[in-house]
Amino acid sequence: MGKRGIAPYRIGQIISTVLLNSYILAYVQGKVLYQGFFKHIPQPVLNCYGGPLAVFACPMGSFQQIIGTHHVPWLVIGMFVVIGAFIGRTTCAWVCPFGLLQDLLQKIPLGPRAKNKKWISFGTITGIAMVALVLLITLVNLAWWKVFLFGCLPFTLLVLYIVIKGKMDMPKRVWGGGFLVAVGLAVFVWAKFGTDYGVVAGVFGMVTLGLTGRKLAAIIGAEAAFFLGMLGPSFNIGPFSGAVLGLLMATIAFGLVVLFDRVIKVSLPSNYLKFFFLILVVCIVAYKTTEPWFCKICPAGTLGAGIPLVLWDPL
Q: In its keyword annotation, does this UniProt entry include rRNA-binding (predicted)?
């Protein structure tokens, strides 16, 4: 059997990546990002418009920017409707630069595919993570312990879990009680600590409590609610504060999980999580805060714009 050539969709990904990031004048003209006509046209893929070479606008970023001004983003919605109606997800496979990156990372064997090379793969992936860690600490001047504790360590433990277990099966159902508790705690964190912490807590909580459900979600949710309520007398809800507020929140969290997960057993397909996430972050949070929060946590934005901009001009 002869050697296989490059798949047609891969050629499409490469061409689109080059075309969507073809503003070479950014380097020639002294680090000036493109702000012309095409930056007002949303592209049907994830390719951050803040990237040094980006030509078109990101649909998610455009949606948030417009909805943040309390207007309806008709152009972006129309683009999604037209693309979705005529070609569906074809753009994800043939055009999306982020899809190309995902496919390349998929070449690193992990889980059942790795077989006897699993530890080599683990070393490769964690090595990439450590390089990113050093770059963040050096160029962005972030505290090393924060980057390690909140970024590198959870990622490494997740990869290690997959290596040891061989795979990580995603539950097919997301449990309603844990999901509601996570949203409630995120709102509480938002009110006390600010939007950024609330968004992070909400995303992490929806996935963790929604997928675990039942006993584990009840225990984790109750403990988290108690400690969040134990913020001292400076924070209160009506007449409740301190330990009393913590106990009240823990009871409510535990009761919600038991009611929805154990008694009436409310659940939804886990793939709905992405829609909940988009509605929460892209619509509600962007509308309320007038900030593009999806862009701040978007992996495509980090890889396509954040890191290149830092390396381009770290000061």
A: no
